[in-house]
């Protein structure tokens, strides 16, 4: 009896507030836009009994999904989200790896402090961390002031409201997600392997390429997924740092919902976004599983 | 043989400079007297004064705090239950769906979570306000809590619980007297995680908040869309300071508690 309650309470909560809302999104994505409150049709009419339910289901169609394929905006936004996420993930890896590598090589008594320093930004408001770059990157911003003051440029650079600013924002906010898994694999690595490689005639750089890098593969893969997956649906960074030509699907969904008030199309956008995300999520899970099996 | 090379030192220095400089600049310029944010015009604390006079910000901060405390507390209870179910309840019908629903919100884009919850609230005719934000925040943060707590539950020695049951404890007593004290550090960090996730959330709150309730991130969002403002710099500095103090204190406390507990656990096993 007690076990049933223990299972039922969180189960029912998640069913009601996680699964049911999805079914509603799915349903509305198959409905039509209407000038009413709420702005879609058909609505399920239980009072009409079986006939009402039948009429409801026969009115559902894939029109919104067809619409998404006819308007350039949507598939371009999907494509450019994936592209921006992929480039940003690569940049985060290039910035994050040397940091994780440095942490793993640091003296033992430094490591807890270094870990703390990587994790601390996690706890600080995401919004504020993105905002902090607005003052740096704007035309009159600190970066332009610095570069002009050093005499490196004469005209201010336009960085804010471009894709470059979006990449910087993503690298900055998602960096800890990349550093931590890579650091974890590097720290576990048996250092005597490097010794062996060097005894066998490898230079230090060769030893890094032939031993360290391949052994940190799992960390790299995990870190890349942890950055790539949430970035695809990102809204705050493209909205604050990106320009009007920065196309990301999270932003399109937001505008479709709040500005155009087209709920059925917004729902269809959400459904497709989810379908796109399922592939990297499954790959990520499989990678984690493989790693656990290798360790266990 | 690990060597800390010049290359390592340089990449750590540059890396941490990259992580912390933007926040340092933000903090420094929050004490700028000038209205123009990017031009330094002397030290002043006037923006803090104006911030404390700004009723709209104070109201939003109060709403945010209420939502965060209530939602993280419910989320901790539900998340701990869910973790217990995942680790200890064995097989039951619909277990796969259950663990799927625990892990899915962690990778779900916020725009989708927000949209779907809003459509639910409208569908059942629930007025949007503080209650709906609390429901939304509880739902996603309980999943984070259960991940944190279940990792602790997996690693702890189950024979302690069995010993308590053998010595005549009821299942509830065993949980309260043995399991809960042992997983307490994880439960506390789960609560803290849920609390900060709630404080921080803009997207889900924007979907689920009605006109009657505005949270601090929504308020910040609407003023920074127009550009950088000295008042927001001051507010950001306060928030960064609170988080830094909170995280450092919490980590010291939980570390000490964890060490003590480990020692006790070891002593109990030896005895």
Provide keyphrases for this structure.
heterodimer, A: about 300 residues, mainly alpha, MetI-like fold, two-stranded antiparallel sheet, about 75% helix, about 0% strand, B: about 270 residues, 11 helices, globular
Describe the protein in words.
Chain A has 296 residues and is mostly helical. Chain A has a single domain, classed as MetI-like fold (Orthogonal Bundle). In chain A, 76% of the residues lie in helices and 1% in strands. Chain A has helices at 2-29, 49-59, 63-70, 72-105, 111-123, 126-137, 142-149, 163-188, 192-199, 204-215, 217-232, 236-241, 249-258, 263-295; strands at 32-33, 40-41. Chain A has a two-stranded antiparallel ribbon. In chain A, helix 1 crosses helix 14 (263-295), helix 6 (126-137) crosses helix 8 (163-188) and helix 9 (192-199) runs antiparallel to helix 10 (204-215). The two termini of chain A are 35 Å apart. The longest helix of chain B is centred in the last third of the chain and has 41 residues, at 230-270. In chain B, helix 6 (130-155) packs across helix 8 (171-200) and helix 8 (171-200) runs antiparallel to helix 11 (230-270). Chain B is globular, with a radius of gyration of 23 Å. Chain B has 271 residues and is mostly helical. Chain B has a single domain, classed as MetI-like (MetI-like fold, Orthogonal Bundle). The interface between A and B is large, with 82 and 82 residues.
């Amino acid at each position: 009896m007690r076990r049933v309650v223990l299972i039922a309470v969180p189960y029912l909560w998640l069913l009601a507030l996680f699964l049911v809302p999805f079914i509603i999104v799915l349903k509305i994505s198959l409905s039509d836009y209407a000038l009413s409150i709420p702005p879609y049709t058909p609505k399920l009419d239980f009072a009409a009994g079986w006939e009402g339910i039948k009429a409801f289901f026969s009115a559902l169609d894939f029109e919104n999904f067809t619409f998404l394929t006819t308007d350039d905006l949507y598939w371009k936004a999907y494509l450019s989200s994936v592209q921006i996420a992929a480039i940003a993930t690569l940049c985060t890896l290039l910035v994050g790896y040397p940091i994780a590598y440095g942490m793993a090589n640091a003296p033992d008594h430094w490591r807890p402090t270094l870990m703390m320093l990587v994790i601390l930004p996690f706890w600080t408001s995401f919004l504020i961390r993105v905002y902090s770059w607005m003052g740096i990157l704007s035309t009159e911003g600190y970066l332009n002031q610095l570069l002009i003051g050093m005499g490196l440029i004469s005209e201010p650079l336009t960085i804010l409201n471009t894709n470059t600013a979006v990449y910087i924002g993503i690298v900055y906010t998602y960096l800890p997600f990349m550093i931590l898994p890579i650091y974890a694999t590097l720290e576990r690595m048996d250092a005597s392997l490097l010794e062996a490689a060097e005894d066998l005639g490898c230079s230090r750089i060769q030893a890094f390429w032939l031993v360290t890098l391949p052994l940190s593969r799992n960390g790299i893969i995990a870190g890349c997924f942890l950055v790539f997956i949430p970035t695809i649906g990102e809204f705050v960074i493209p909205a604050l740092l990106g320009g009007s030509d920065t196309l990301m699907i999270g932003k399109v969904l937001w505008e479709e919902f709040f500005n155009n008030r087209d709920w059925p199309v917004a729902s269809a956008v959400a459904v497709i976004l989810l379908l796109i995300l399922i592939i990297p999520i499954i790959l990520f899970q499989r990678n984690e599983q493989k790693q656990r099996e290798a360790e266990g | 043989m690990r060597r800390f090379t010049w290359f390592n030192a340089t990449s750590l220095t540059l890396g941490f400079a990259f992580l912390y400089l933007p926040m340092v600049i933000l903090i420094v310029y929050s004490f700028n007297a000038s209205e123009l944010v990017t031009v330094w015009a002397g030290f002043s604390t006037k923006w803090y004064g104006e911030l404390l006079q700004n009723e709209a910000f104070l109201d939003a901060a109060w709403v945010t705090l209420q939502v965060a405390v209530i939602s993280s507390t419910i989320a901790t209870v539900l998340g701990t239950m869910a973790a217990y179910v995942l680790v200890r309840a064995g097989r039951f019908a619909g277990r796969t769906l259950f663990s799927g629903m625990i892990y899915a919100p962690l990778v779900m884009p916020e725009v989708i979570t927000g949209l779907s919850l809003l459509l639910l609230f409208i569908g059942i005719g629930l007025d949007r306000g503080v209650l709906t934000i609390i429901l939304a925040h509880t739902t996603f943060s309980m999943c984070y809590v259960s991940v944190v707590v279940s990792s602790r539950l997996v690693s702890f020695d189950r024979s302690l619980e069995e010993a308590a049951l053998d010595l005549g404890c009821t299942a509830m007593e065993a949980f309260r007297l043995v399991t809960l004290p042992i997983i307490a550090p994880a439960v506390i960090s789960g609560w803290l995680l849920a609390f900060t996730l709630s404080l921080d959330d803009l997207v889900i709150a924007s979907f689920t908040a009605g006109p009657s309730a505005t949270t601090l991130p929504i308020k910040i969002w609407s003023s920074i869309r127009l550009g950088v403002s000295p008042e927001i710099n001051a507010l950001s500095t306060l928030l960064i300071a609170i988080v830094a103090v909170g995280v450092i204190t919490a980590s010291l406390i939980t570390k000490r508690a964890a060490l003590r507990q480990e020692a006790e656990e070891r002593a109990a096993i030896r005895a």
